[in-house]
Write a structure and sequence with these properties.
The chain has helices at about 25-35, 35-40, 60-75, 90-100, 110-120, 130, 155-165, 180-190, 205-215, 225-235, 255-260, 280-295, 295-305, 315-335; strands at about 50-55, 80-85, 105-110, 135-145, 145-150, 170-175, 200, 220, 235-240, 265-275. The chain has 2 domains: about 10-140 and about 270-335, Bordetella uptake gene, domain 1 (D-Maltodextrin-Binding Protein, domain 2), CATH 3.40.190.150; about 145-260, 3-Layer(aba) Sandwich (D-Maltodextrin-Binding Protein, domain 2), CATH 3.40.190.10. β1 (about 50-55), α3 (about 60-75) and β2 (about 80-85) form a beta-alpha-beta unit. Helix content is about 40%, strand content about 15%. The chain is an alpha/beta fold and about 350 residues long.
Protein backbone atom coordinates (compact mmCIF):
# COMPACT_ATOMS: atom_id res chain seq x y z
CA UNK A 1 0.00 0.00 0.00
CA UNK A 2 1.30 3.44 -0.89
CA UNK A 3 1.50 5.79 2.07
CA UNK A 4 0.86 9.50 1.90
CA UNK A 5 2.77 10.70 4.94
CA UNK A 6 1.50 14.23 4.46
CA UNK A 7 -1.99 13.14 5.50
CA UNK A 8 -2.90 11.75 8.95
CA UNK A 9 -4.93 8.57 9.15
CA UNK A 10 -7.40 10.44 11.32
CA UNK A 11 -8.13 14.11 11.76
CA UNK A 12 -5.37 15.42 14.02
CA UNK A 13 -7.98 17.58 15.74
CA UNK A 14 -9.52 14.44 17.21
CA UNK A 15 -6.77 14.13 19.76
CA UNK A 16 -3.98 16.15 21.29
CA UNK A 17 -0.59 14.76 20.36
CA UNK A 18 2.35 16.71 21.64
CA UNK A 19 4.10 17.04 18.31
CA UNK A 20 1.34 16.24 15.84
CA UNK A 21 1.92 19.53 14.05
CA UNK A 22 5.33 18.24 12.95
CA UNK A 23 4.05 15.81 10.33
CA UNK A 24 6.86 14.11 8.45
CA UNK A 25 7.03 14.17 4.69
CA UNK A 26 7.21 10.88 2.86
CA UNK A 27 10.80 11.56 1.86
CA UNK A 28 12.01 12.45 5.34
CA UNK A 29 10.16 9.53 6.92
CA UNK A 30 11.60 6.98 4.50
CA UNK A 31 15.05 8.51 4.83
CA UNK A 32 14.97 8.12 8.60
CA UNK A 33 12.90 4.98 9.00
CA UNK A 34 12.62 3.25 5.65
CA UNK A 35 14.09 -0.13 4.72
CA UNK A 36 17.11 1.39 2.94
CA UNK A 37 18.17 3.31 6.03
CA UNK A 38 17.52 0.35 8.33
CA UNK A 39 18.95 -2.36 6.10
CA UNK A 40 18.24 -4.93 8.85
CA UNK A 41 21.87 -6.06 8.61
CA UNK A 42 21.43 -7.95 11.86
CA UNK A 43 18.59 -9.99 10.32
CA UNK A 44 16.22 -8.83 13.07
CA UNK A 45 14.08 -10.57 14.07
CA UNK A 46 15.44 -14.08 13.68
CA UNK A 47 13.57 -15.60 16.61
CA UNK A 48 10.33 -15.10 18.56
CA UNK A 49 9.76 -11.62 20.00
CA UNK A 50 7.94 -11.41 23.33
CA UNK A 51 5.75 -8.41 24.20
CA UNK A 52 5.16 -8.14 27.93
CA UNK A 53 1.90 -6.58 29.12
CA UNK A 54 1.15 -5.76 32.75
CA UNK A 55 -2.58 -6.44 32.58
CA UNK A 56 -4.92 -9.41 32.27
CA UNK A 57 -6.32 -10.55 28.91
CA UNK A 58 -9.45 -8.91 27.53
CA UNK A 59 -8.91 -5.21 28.21
CA UNK A 60 -8.21 -2.50 25.65
CA UNK A 61 -4.44 -2.68 26.15
CA UNK A 62 -4.48 -6.46 25.66
CA UNK A 63 -6.59 -6.23 22.51
CA UNK A 64 -4.39 -3.53 20.98
CA UNK A 65 -1.15 -5.27 21.97
CA UNK A 66 -2.33 -8.44 20.25
CA UNK A 67 -3.44 -6.46 17.22
CA UNK A 68 -0.05 -4.85 16.63
CA UNK A 69 1.68 -8.17 17.42
CA UNK A 70 -0.38 -9.85 14.70
CA UNK A 71 0.59 -7.27 12.08
CA UNK A 72 4.25 -7.27 13.06
CA UNK A 73 4.30 -11.06 12.88
CA UNK A 74 2.90 -10.97 9.35
CA UNK A 75 5.08 -8.15 8.05
CA UNK A 76 8.35 -9.25 9.66
CA UNK A 77 7.86 -12.99 9.06
CA UNK A 78 8.50 -13.87 12.69
CA UNK A 79 6.25 -14.50 15.70
CA UNK A 80 5.49 -11.61 18.06
CA UNK A 81 3.78 -13.06 21.16
CA UNK A 82 1.99 -11.09 23.87
CA UNK A 83 2.59 -12.39 27.39
CA UNK A 84 0.33 -11.10 30.17
CA UNK A 85 2.05 -10.39 33.48
CA UNK A 86 -0.64 -8.60 35.53
CA UNK A 87 -0.02 -7.18 38.97
CA UNK A 88 1.37 -4.21 40.89
CA UNK A 89 -0.27 -1.66 38.58
CA UNK A 90 1.69 -2.97 35.62
CA UNK A 91 5.05 -2.94 37.37
CA UNK A 92 5.67 -6.69 37.22
CA UNK A 93 5.82 -6.68 33.41
CA UNK A 94 8.01 -3.56 33.40
CA UNK A 95 10.54 -5.13 35.77
CA UNK A 96 10.72 -8.26 33.64
CA UNK A 97 11.57 -6.28 30.51
CA UNK A 98 14.04 -4.10 32.41
CA UNK A 99 15.95 -7.25 33.44
CA UNK A 100 15.93 -8.80 29.95
CA UNK A 101 18.73 -8.35 27.39
CA UNK A 102 18.40 -5.13 25.38
CA UNK A 103 18.27 -6.96 22.06
CA UNK A 104 14.73 -6.22 20.86
CA UNK A 105 13.42 -9.70 21.64
CA UNK A 106 11.66 -8.72 24.86
CA UNK A 107 9.51 -5.61 24.44
CA UNK A 108 7.07 -3.85 26.73
CA UNK A 109 3.56 -2.75 25.87
CA UNK A 110 3.43 0.22 28.24
CA UNK A 111 0.47 2.27 29.45
CA UNK A 112 0.00 5.48 31.50
CA UNK A 113 0.15 3.81 34.92
CA UNK A 114 3.49 2.05 34.67
CA UNK A 115 5.19 4.53 32.32
CA UNK A 116 4.03 7.83 33.86
CA UNK A 117 1.81 7.70 36.94
CA UNK A 118 3.45 5.07 39.18
CA UNK A 119 6.77 6.91 39.29
CA UNK A 120 4.92 9.93 40.71
CA UNK A 121 2.79 8.21 43.33
CA UNK A 122 4.92 5.21 44.34
CA UNK A 123 8.18 5.12 46.25
CA UNK A 124 11.12 2.78 45.72
CA UNK A 125 10.22 1.51 42.26
CA UNK A 126 12.64 -1.13 41.02
CA UNK A 127 12.93 0.63 37.67
CA UNK A 128 13.00 4.09 36.13
CA UNK A 129 10.62 4.25 33.14
CA UNK A 130 12.46 7.25 31.70
CA UNK A 131 16.01 5.92 32.09
CA UNK A 132 15.40 2.22 31.50
CA UNK A 133 13.22 2.36 28.37
CA UNK A 134 12.98 4.05 25.00
CA UNK A 135 9.61 4.66 23.30
CA UNK A 136 9.24 2.75 20.03
CA UNK A 137 5.75 3.62 18.77
CA UNK A 138 2.38 4.61 20.17
CA UNK A 139 -0.31 2.09 19.27
CA UNK A 140 -3.59 3.39 20.66
CA UNK A 141 -5.33 6.38 22.19
CA UNK A 142 -8.82 5.99 23.70
CA UNK A 143 -10.88 8.83 25.21
CA UNK A 144 -12.56 8.49 28.57
CA UNK A 145 -16.28 9.17 28.76
CA UNK A 146 -18.09 10.77 31.69
CA UNK A 147 -21.09 8.52 32.19
CA UNK A 148 -23.99 8.36 34.65
CA UNK A 149 -26.63 5.65 35.26
CA UNK A 150 -29.62 5.60 32.93
CA UNK A 151 -31.91 6.68 35.78
CA UNK A 152 -29.63 9.50 36.90
CA UNK A 153 -31.27 12.92 37.28
CA UNK A 154 -28.30 14.42 35.44
CA UNK A 155 -29.29 14.84 31.81
CA UNK A 156 -26.35 17.05 30.88
CA UNK A 157 -22.80 17.73 32.00
CA UNK A 158 -23.87 21.10 33.39
CA UNK A 159 -26.57 19.42 35.52
CA UNK A 160 -23.92 17.29 37.22
CA UNK A 161 -21.43 20.11 37.75
CA UNK A 162 -24.03 22.51 39.13
CA UNK A 163 -25.29 19.92 41.63
CA UNK A 164 -21.73 19.13 42.74
CA UNK A 165 -21.18 22.81 43.37
CA UNK A 166 -24.41 23.14 45.35
CA UNK A 167 -23.69 20.02 47.39
CA UNK A 168 -19.91 19.68 47.85
CA UNK A 169 -18.66 16.09 48.22
CA UNK A 170 -22.20 14.65 48.01
CA UNK A 171 -21.73 13.30 44.50
CA UNK A 172 -19.58 10.19 44.13
CA UNK A 173 -17.38 9.24 41.20
CA UNK A 174 -16.03 5.76 40.61
CA UNK A 175 -12.64 4.75 39.25
CA UNK A 176 -10.88 1.53 38.28
CA UNK A 177 -8.41 2.25 41.09
CA UNK A 178 -6.51 5.02 42.80
CA UNK A 179 -4.05 6.73 40.47
CA UNK A 180 -5.76 5.50 37.30
CA UNK A 181 -6.44 7.98 34.46
CA UNK A 182 -10.16 7.85 35.29
CA UNK A 183 -9.47 8.68 38.92
CA UNK A 184 -7.23 11.61 38.06
CA UNK A 185 -9.66 12.89 35.42
CA UNK A 186 -12.39 12.93 38.06
CA UNK A 187 -10.16 14.72 40.54
CA UNK A 188 -9.17 17.28 37.91
CA UNK A 189 -12.82 17.97 37.10
CA UNK A 190 -13.70 18.29 40.78
CA UNK A 191 -10.77 20.57 41.58
CA UNK A 192 -10.50 22.77 38.50
CA UNK A 193 -14.24 22.81 37.87
CA UNK A 194 -14.90 23.81 41.50
CA UNK A 195 -17.29 20.86 41.75
CA UNK A 196 -16.13 18.82 44.78
CA UNK A 197 -16.97 15.11 44.55
CA UNK A 198 -16.06 12.02 46.57
CA UNK A 199 -13.83 9.39 44.99
CA UNK A 200 -14.88 5.73 45.23
CA UNK A 201 -12.04 3.47 44.00
CA UNK A 202 -12.69 -0.06 42.72
CA UNK A 203 -10.39 -2.96 41.89
CA UNK A 204 -10.77 -2.69 38.14
CA UNK A 205 -13.07 -1.20 35.53
CA UNK A 206 -15.64 -4.00 35.52
CA UNK A 207 -16.81 -3.72 39.17
CA UNK A 208 -16.85 0.07 38.89
CA UNK A 209 -19.08 -0.10 35.84
CA UNK A 210 -21.40 -2.64 37.48
CA UNK A 211 -21.95 -0.37 40.46
CA UNK A 212 -22.46 2.64 38.21
CA UNK A 213 -25.13 0.88 36.17
CA UNK A 214 -26.75 -0.20 39.44
CA UNK A 215 -26.88 3.39 40.65
CA UNK A 216 -24.50 2.90 43.57
CA UNK A 217 -22.22 5.73 42.40
CA UNK A 218 -23.16 8.90 40.58
CA UNK A 219 -20.63 9.04 37.74
CA UNK A 220 -17.52 7.45 36.26
CA UNK A 221 -14.78 8.21 33.69
CA UNK A 222 -14.18 4.81 32.00
CA UNK A 223 -12.46 4.26 28.67
CA UNK A 224 -14.93 4.34 25.79
CA UNK A 225 -14.05 0.77 24.84
CA UNK A 226 -15.37 -0.54 28.15
CA UNK A 227 -18.57 1.47 28.11
CA UNK A 228 -19.55 1.90 24.44
CA UNK A 229 -21.99 -1.01 24.36
CA UNK A 230 -23.68 0.23 27.54
CA UNK A 231 -24.05 3.71 26.04
CA UNK A 232 -25.65 2.24 22.94
CA UNK A 233 -27.97 -0.02 24.97
CA UNK A 234 -29.11 2.88 27.15
CA UNK A 235 -27.77 1.39 30.39
CA UNK A 236 -25.68 4.52 30.96
CA UNK A 237 -25.79 8.09 29.67
CA UNK A 238 -22.73 9.73 28.14
CA UNK A 239 -22.45 13.36 29.27
CA UNK A 240 -19.02 14.42 28.01
CA UNK A 241 -15.69 13.18 26.68
CA UNK A 242 -12.35 13.62 28.42
CA UNK A 243 -10.29 14.04 25.25
CA UNK A 244 -9.21 17.39 23.87
CA UNK A 245 -11.54 17.03 20.89
CA UNK A 246 -14.69 15.15 19.98
CA UNK A 247 -14.78 11.55 18.86
CA UNK A 248 -16.03 10.58 15.41
CA UNK A 249 -17.76 7.67 17.13
CA UNK A 250 -19.84 9.99 19.33
CA UNK A 251 -19.76 13.24 17.34
CA UNK A 252 -22.69 14.84 19.18
CA UNK A 253 -21.08 14.45 22.58
CA UNK A 254 -19.14 17.54 23.71
CA UNK A 255 -15.86 17.47 25.57
CA UNK A 256 -15.13 18.75 29.07
CA UNK A 257 -12.65 21.06 27.36
CA UNK A 258 -15.45 22.61 25.32
CA UNK A 259 -17.94 22.86 28.14
CA UNK A 260 -15.91 24.02 31.12
CA UNK A 261 -12.14 23.46 31.26
CA UNK A 262 -10.11 24.34 28.14
CA UNK A 263 -7.18 21.97 27.78
CA UNK A 264 -8.83 19.15 29.77
CA UNK A 265 -7.43 16.00 28.15
CA UNK A 266 -7.28 12.55 29.74
CA UNK A 267 -7.08 9.40 27.63
CA UNK A 268 -6.03 5.78 27.81
CA UNK A 269 -3.00 5.18 25.62
CA UNK A 270 -0.37 2.53 25.09
CA UNK A 271 2.52 1.56 22.90
CA UNK A 272 5.70 -0.40 22.45
CA UNK A 273 8.85 0.26 24.47
CA UNK A 274 12.30 -1.30 24.33
CA UNK A 275 15.11 -1.45 26.87
CA UNK A 276 17.30 1.66 26.67
CA UNK A 277 20.36 -0.01 25.17
CA UNK A 278 18.41 -1.67 22.36
CA UNK A 279 20.13 -0.90 19.03
CA UNK A 280 18.57 2.13 17.37
CA UNK A 281 18.23 0.23 14.09
CA UNK A 282 15.86 -2.20 15.79
CA UNK A 283 13.79 0.62 17.28
CA UNK A 284 13.52 2.26 13.85
CA UNK A 285 12.62 -1.04 12.19
CA UNK A 286 9.78 -1.70 14.64
CA UNK A 287 8.51 1.86 14.32
CA UNK A 288 8.51 1.67 10.52
CA UNK A 289 6.68 -1.65 10.44
CA UNK A 290 4.05 -0.47 12.93
CA UNK A 291 3.37 2.66 10.89
CA UNK A 292 3.03 0.52 7.77
CA UNK A 293 0.29 -1.39 9.61
CA UNK A 294 -1.46 1.86 10.58
CA UNK A 295 -1.86 2.70 6.89
CA UNK A 296 -3.91 -0.46 6.28
CA UNK A 297 -7.68 -0.05 6.18
CA UNK A 298 -8.20 -3.35 8.00
CA UNK A 299 -5.99 -2.24 10.89
CA UNK A 300 -7.83 1.07 11.04
CA UNK A 301 -11.21 -0.68 11.13
CA UNK A 302 -10.17 -3.02 13.93
CA UNK A 303 -8.67 -0.17 15.92
CA UNK A 304 -11.83 1.89 15.50
CA UNK A 305 -13.85 -0.96 16.96
CA UNK A 306 -11.82 -0.42 20.13
CA UNK A 307 -12.78 3.30 20.03
CA UNK A 308 -9.13 4.13 19.35
CA UNK A 309 -7.60 6.70 17.05
CA UNK A 310 -4.81 5.53 14.76
CA UNK A 311 -2.05 7.98 13.93
CA UNK A 312 1.45 7.61 12.60
CA UNK A 313 4.18 8.63 15.01
CA UNK A 314 7.93 8.47 15.41
CA UNK A 315 9.78 7.42 18.56
CA UNK A 316 10.56 11.10 19.14
CA UNK A 317 6.90 12.09 18.88
CA UNK A 318 5.89 9.31 21.25
CA UNK A 319 8.58 10.45 23.70
CA UNK A 320 7.30 14.04 23.53
CA UNK A 321 3.76 12.80 24.20
CA UNK A 322 4.93 10.87 27.26
CA UNK A 323 6.80 13.92 28.54
CA UNK A 324 3.67 16.07 28.27
CA UNK A 325 1.65 13.36 30.03
CA UNK A 326 4.18 13.23 32.87
CA UNK A 327 3.98 16.98 33.35
CA UNK A 328 0.18 16.95 33.40
CA UNK A 329 -0.15 14.05 35.82
CA UNK A 330 2.57 15.40 38.10
CA UNK A 331 0.68 18.65 38.45
CA UNK A 332 -2.75 17.17 39.17
CA UNK A 333 -1.30 14.64 41.63
CA UNK A 334 0.52 17.46 43.41
CA UNK A 335 -2.62 19.59 43.43
CA UNK A 336 -4.77 16.88 45.04
CA UNK A 337 -1.99 15.55 47.30
CA UNK A 338 -2.45 11.97 46.19
CA UNK A 339 -0.06 9.18 47.20
CA UNK A 340 -0.48 5.44 46.64
Amino acid sequence: MNIDHEKPLVDLNRRKFATSACALSAASWLSAYGPTALAQSNNYPNKVVRIMLGYAPGGSADVMARLIAEYLSNSMKQSFIVENRPGASGNIAVQQVARAPADGYTLLFGNPAEMVINKIIMKDLAFDPDADFVPVVQVFNIPLGLVVPAKSPYKTFNDLVEDARRNPKKLTFASAGGGSPGHLAGEALALKGKAPMTHVPYKGAAPALIDLIGGHVDCYFPGLTAVAQHIKSGAVRLLALSSANRSNLFPDTPTVSELLLPGFDFTLWGGLFAATKTPNEIVKTLNFEANQAYARSDFQARSTREQSDVIRNTPEQFAAHIKSQSEKYSQIIKDIGYVA
